[in-house]
């Protein structure tokens, strides 16, 4: 990243204020180190040299904001990222969830859906998919649009197949998608109980009650204050004894309600809401 | 060796051919080493890994820790950037993780951590760049030097893959070119 696109903390605050007032997205409690890097990267790609120019574009060019939102929010995702986590889900979490007649799962910050599709495959193999409703949410409308198509770039499928096998997958991974040109489309049957819908963890509230919430590698973009708020939101959205899964390097340590969760797996970061 | 009492952090980046040098450095390190050490290695993702144990090989009492998000950067502690994340440091000297695009085909990328450390620690940082087969770390080391920190590059003659040290030297000359043994001696000199 070239240093000519560095913006100082005051400029960063001014940009965050502008976005909030103009477009309603609130980034003020995002973790600054990563967020500043995102903005610098964005400016460099767009050939914008100063914070002043960036503000000018944000104010006067709505399509630019759409692109900007897409680039500053991190939309990287993989199928079966951290195979150990999916193995743990399969072996320890899903068997207990099987006792529910109807299952509700929330993927918060689902990006383009790769983790949601992974979950659907897991549920299918454990015989739970047909009675599960998956709510997959993201703040970024472009991500949701992409996720609804069920299309995953083919180039990563080899990695994903490896992950799937590591996670204890039971079938041919290729039986879950159809490859065409550069893309793979995830089978419709796997996707029929998934509802992709906008939700912003910063500003939106509880909308249902879930037996499992997956929010992996989203909290890392938030500062401690916002992390704590979002963990409250998850607690309030979980049924008693419902599970919360966060990223392998995320923690509940900085939340004031960490005592209201039991640790199910310290290594794969799965927690369970106490009664 | 010059007395550098204000140093707080050593960041070491390495790629292909760097692990043996990393082990050499770490195993020679005094156990009471007072500064924070952050290691960024190009490594595989989505496999179970005991890289931290490999690096502390043959050294009892040496604990290498992969930090969680928001964990404070403590003195006297050795950290290893976790697989499949970029590792950054916040202004309050806590770690921040980032699961964004690869940088220089890598995540963790050395540039990302080095640049972030340069911003937060300025002249209190030392960056060490070891063997590797790509250009990661060159811009980061330059950032550390520009912010008043010290840059050290493994002597390309001693590197299994000299591309990475050479790329750094092409970007900035204001660095020391050290053999692995000189790196060890330098770090020892910071201890007491």
From TrEMBL, chain A:
Q: Which domain of life is it from?
A: Bacteria
Boundaries of each CheR-type methyltransferase domain copy?
Answer: 1-274
- Give the InterPro entries listed for this entry: Bact_Chemotaxis_MeTrfase (IPR050903), CheR_C (IPR022642), CheR_MeTrfase (IPR000780), CheR_N (IPR022641), SAM-dependent_MTases_sf (IPR029063)
Spell out the SMART domains in the cross-references: MeTrc
What name goes with this protein?
Answer: Chemotaxis protein CheR
* UniProt organism field: Nibrella saemangeumensis
UniProtKB/TrEMBL annotation, chain B:
The active site is formed by 15, 42, 136
EC numbers for this chain: 3.1.1.61
What are the alphabetically sorted keywords of the record?
Answer: Chemotaxis, Hydrolase
Highest taxon listed in the record's lineage: Bacteria
| Pfam families assigned | CheB_methylest
Give the reaction(s) catalysed: [protein]-L-glutamate 5-O-methyl ester + H2O = L-glutamyl-[protein] + methanol + H(+)
The top EC class, named as a word, is hydrolase
- InterPro entries registered for this protein in UniProt: CheB_C, Sig_transdc_resp-reg_Me-estase
- Could you tell me which residue ranges the CheB-type methylesterase domain spans? 3-169
Could you tell me which PANTHER family the record lists for this protein?
Answer: PROTEIN-GLUTAMATE METHYLESTERASE/PROTEIN-GLUTAMINE GLUTAMINASE, PROTEIN-GLUTAMATE METHYLESTERASE_PROTEIN-GLUTAMINE GLUTAMINASE
- What name has this protein been given in UniProt? protein-glutamate methylesterase
Q: Which organism is it from?
A: Nibrella saemangeumensis
Taxonomic placement:
Bacteria, Pseudomonadati, Bacteroidota, Cytophagia, Cytophagales
């Amino acid at each position: 990243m070239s240093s000519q696109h560095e913006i100082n903390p005051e400029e960063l605050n001014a940009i965050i204020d502008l976005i909030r007032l103009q477009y309603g997205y609130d980034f003020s409690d995002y973790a600054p180190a990563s967020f500043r890097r995102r903005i610098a990267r964005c400016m460099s790609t767009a050939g914008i040299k100063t914070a002043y120019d960036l503000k000018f574009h944000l104010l006067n060019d709505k399509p630019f904001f759409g692109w900007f939102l897409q680039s500053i929010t991190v939309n990287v995702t993989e199928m079966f990222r951290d195979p150990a986590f999916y193995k743990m889900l399969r072996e320890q979490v899903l068997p207990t969830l099987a006792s529910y007649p109807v299952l509700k799962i929330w993927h918060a910050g689902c990006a383009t859906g790769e983790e949601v599709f992974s979950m659907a495959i897991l549920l299918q193999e454990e015989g739970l998919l047909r009675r599960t409703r998956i709510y997959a949410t993201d703040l970024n409308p472009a991500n949701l649009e992409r996720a609804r198509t069920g299309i995953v770039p083919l180039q990563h499928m080899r990695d994903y197949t490896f992950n799937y096998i590591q996670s204890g997958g039971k079938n041919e991974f290729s039986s879950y998608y159809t490859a065409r040109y550069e893309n793979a489309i995830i089978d419709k049957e796997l996707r029929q109980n998934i509802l992709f819908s906008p939700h912003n963890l910063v500003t939106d509230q509880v909308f249902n009650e879930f037996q499992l919430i997956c929010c992996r590698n989203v909290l890392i973009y938030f500062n401690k204050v916002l992390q704590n708020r979002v963990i409250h939101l998850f607690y309030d959205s979980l049924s008693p004894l419902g599970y919360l899964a966060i990223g392998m390097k995320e923690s509940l340590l900085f939340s004031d309600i960490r005592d209201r969760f039991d640790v199910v797996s310290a290594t794969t970061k799965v927690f369970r809401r106490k009664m | 060796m010059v007395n550098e009492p204000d140093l707080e952090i050593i960041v070491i980046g390495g790629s292909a051919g760097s692990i043996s040098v990393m082990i050499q450095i770490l195993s020679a390190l005094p156990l009471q080493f007072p500064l924070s050490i952050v290691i960024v290695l190009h490594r595989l993702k989505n496999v179970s890994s005991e890289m931290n144990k490999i690096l502390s090989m043959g050294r009892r009492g040496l604990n290498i820790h992969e930090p969680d998000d928001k964990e404070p950067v403590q003195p006297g502690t050795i950290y290893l950037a976790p697989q499949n994340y970029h590792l950054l440091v916040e202004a309050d000297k806590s770690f921040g993780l980032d699961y964004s695009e690869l940088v220089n085909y890598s995540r963790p990328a050395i540039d990302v951590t080095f640049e972030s450390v340069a911003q937060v620690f300025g002249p209190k940082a030392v960056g060490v760049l070891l063997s590797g087969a790509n250009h990661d770390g060159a811009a980061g080391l330059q950032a550390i030097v520009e912010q008043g920190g010290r840059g050290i590059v493994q002597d390309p003659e001693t590197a299994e893959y000299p591309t990475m040290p050479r790329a750094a030297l092409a970007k900035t000359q204001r660095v020391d070119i050290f053999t692995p043994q000189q790196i060890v001696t330098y770090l020892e000199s910071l201890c007491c």
